[in-house]
């Protein structure tokens, strides 16, 4: 029998457990070496919106998951809907008990099993998350306006019960709404006790020049979801991966980006071309060396992931240089905490002006060399000597210490144990986290080297990873 109580009861009564129902970047103004530049009149089309129809992607996504390989990265369990039948229990068994605390205006729920957890759920949160058709759109999967109008913080349920099979908590409210919360949904949503989304604070593997960069086959990435998942997971954990065997022609960066979502355009268009020109207007179009850098420091929101496709490799020289900026930042913190503090505290200005695909531009932003997140962990490295501006808004007595710290870090980046050199082959697409991995190149001899590059953003990479997790999990369950 459902337990029923009346809102006017104010006594600090902790209700006895309700048993189950029925008893439950082109101007030549940059420092040398210059930044990546696009082709001028030979540039590829800018934004190909038409390419981003999801049909092909949807078809690829529907292919089955190879269950013999396990994913390298796990996100938090995909969020189930309150009324959706659970495919997995997320470690929670059915509901055992619920107690009402009228003074605290909350429910206390426990689950079956030994070492079972219990959790308090304030009534206002439960009412806010009512998934009935009047409160929550069943296909848009979002709250309807009516659900948040006049949300009463002091709301108390009329009736609270656990379904006979122990899978649902059913709450009836005094406005006539009935909310149903499944056992695993409640277990997934335990406020500060909830499992965090691991992609928000990813576990990363720091590396030096002895790292073996993982390779992925281009055609496999276009066709197979597990390969796609593994490549993106590698970008999360190591920040660098190599895609092999792409056709040696323009346009492959688009195809790869479409597997994630879409390209992030810059002032140079949807993609850019890195190649030497007979009369270069910038050092970027030369055969000279390219200092270690991260891309687009003059933007406040620097691009997330760089995709660099080798259409024609350099004959001699032109090796790509890569270094894990996070690893070297940790090394710096250990051997010179003051240098680390200076680089995380003060900001350098970066600027770049010129004219390109979208007319004239003048970008200007400011970043510390080493950016920390709210937990004090390194979340981004920004270094771009070619676009570093003379503007340096710091106390004058800090100028020399800052240069000292910067030189120390920049030199550490180039130590043999940190700096990886790789000669791109025809058809390679080098992919790396632009927030973490610095890249550069050695000088080369021929003028024929041609790379096409583009970016995808981390939000889109993470979104694809979560969606793939759901898809692959579902396929596994269906098998
Ligand atoms: Zn409702």
Automatic annotation (TrEMBL):
**Cellular component terms (Gene Ontology):** mitochondrion
Recite the UniProt keywords alphabetically. Carnitine biosynthesis, Dioxygenase, Iron, Metal-binding, Oxidoreductase
Q: What is this protein called?
A: Gamma-butyrobetaine dioxygenase
- Recorded source organism is Patiria miniata (Bat star)
Q: Which residues cross the membrane?
A: none
GO terms, molecular function: gamma-butyrobetaine dioxygenase activity; metal ion binding
Q: Which family does it belong to?
A: Belongs to the gamma-BBH/TMLD family.
Give the organism's phylogenetic lineage. Answer: Eukaryota, Metazoa, Echinodermata, Eleutherozoa, Asterozoa
UniProt keyword annotation of Repeat present: no
Q: Where is the TauD/TfdA-like domain?
A: 208-455
Show where the Gamma-butyrobetaine hydroxylase-like N-terminal domain sits: 101-186
| Cofactors demanded by this protein | Fe(2+); L-ascorbate
| Functional pathway | Amine and polyamine biosynthesis; carnitine biosynthesis
Biological process (GO) annotations held by this record are: carnitine biosynthetic process
